[in-house]
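User: Hey, my collaborator sent me this sequence without any context and asked if I could get a structure. I don't really work with proteins. Can you help?
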Amino acid sequence: MITADLQKVQFNSSGEFLLVRPDKLRVRRTGGLSDTEVIFDGAIATIQDKRSDRFARLEISGSTDELVDRLRNDYAVEAPGADLLLTHVYDELTAGVTDAKQLAPGVIDGVFCEHLAFRNHETDWQIWVQIGPVPIPRKYVITNKAISGGPQYTLRIKDWKTDVPVATDAFVFTPANGARQVEVTSLSDIDEIPAGKATGGSR
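Assistant: No problem. I've predicted the 3D structure and written it out in structure-token form, which is a compact way to encode the shape of the chain:
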């Protein structure tokens, strides 16, 4: 993010996701600012703030693509990493692209990858895709050209499995004892991108 005094800073978090198409998703993100989990069973999306033991439930029927669309358009949750989970990911990513380049191969966490760079009117984005019979994405970087200073979002994928057995209750939300249900608007820091606010420095 870019602070009020135009300093570019990074926030880091780790996470994992479980996806069963077309309408099941469980994502957890843990970082210094938040510990958030989203569980979607095709009819109800539950967003849980584990640090405050609060959760919100949203009636969203449909696919995981529709979930992402609703979170972005109705609740201002950008979740740029969700781009790679969309059903038609190639079409979604390349819509509006004005320039595309294949750059020199790169190595991400010891894995040789093709390095591709794209531009559209609002963003520059890059993706590193594993070379070989399993071409999975290993790194994804978005630079926002619409904001002064060009803030960036980076996603690094450590592991990507397609043959993991899924428990029958994997997408069932059970609130912890004492957890409170609230409106989604009262949950803070549920997005992957921290709010544009700096602590300290010039204002």
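In plain terms: The radius of gyration is 18 Å. You can pass these tokens on to your collaborator as they are.
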